[in-house]
Each structure stands twice: as structure tokens, then as C-alpha cells.
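During the reporting period, we have paired protein sequences with C-alpha cells. One record among many follows, to show the layout:
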Amino acid sequence: MYSLCRFSDPRGDIRAGLVLDASTVLDLSPTGIERLEPLLESDQVLAQLADLAGRDLPRRALADVRLRAPVERQEVWAAGVTYSRSKAAVSDGLVFTVEWSDDLTGDTWNSTGVVETAVDQGATERVRATVPAGSNAGRFVHLKVISP
């Protein structure tokens, strides 16, 4: 399983990363990868992630970085998010799941009540996901991508 993330390093630079385990993220910036979207829209996303995971790239402790929103050009509105995904990635078994949480403590991410609508854009789909209203003033939302 591969977990992609965006993070800011101690200097505040925002980078793309590949989470290796519960405490380590692989910094993808030396490869020229500055955004997650091209990876997520790639027809060969699994092969690319496997290749990146095997490279000798800088490793950073998750405790030393700040995780950021996973999609750079996300459209956030009322109660949801919009993102793009590759049809080839979906057919290869990647699972894209929008999850929400009322707080960021513990294991509180949930996909209950999320409704997605996909619009065909050729090799990609533009997905709009709505999240149910919460009891708080707002909800945290993230996109989880899991490989088979």
C-alpha cells in the first residue's frame, strides 16, 4: 500500500511525499515531483509509486514535518471537495476515498454519508464529493488513496 502526502518541512517549504511507515515520509522533491496531482492522474501510478519507494531519497520523520491538504487545486465548498483521478489508476485497483473528521485526534476519519459524483474528462474523472453536515462549525476533509 502506498500513501501519498503533502507536507511542509521545518523551513516551511511544501513538498510531495510518500509515507513509508508510521513515522517516516520519503521526500519526492529531488525527483522533480512538486505536486501530487500528476501522480494521481498518471496511467502508470502504481509503477511510478513502486519506483519512487525503491529510490534512495531523503527520509524525514513525520514528527518533524507538518502534513498539508492532499490535493493542491482542491475546490472546497460548503460541505465537500472536488478532485481529479486517473481512470487507469482506478482500473488498476487504486481506491480513492474522501473521509471527514470533526477533530484531528486519534482515529476519527469516517466516510459515512459521503456522496461522490464523477464527471468523465477523457483519461481522467473530476469527482465532487459531498460530506454530511456536522455538529461543529466545520469538518476536516481528506482524500485517502489506497493501492491494492
Remarks:
- The first strand starts at residue 3 and ends at 8.
- Residues 45-53 form the longest helix (9 residues).
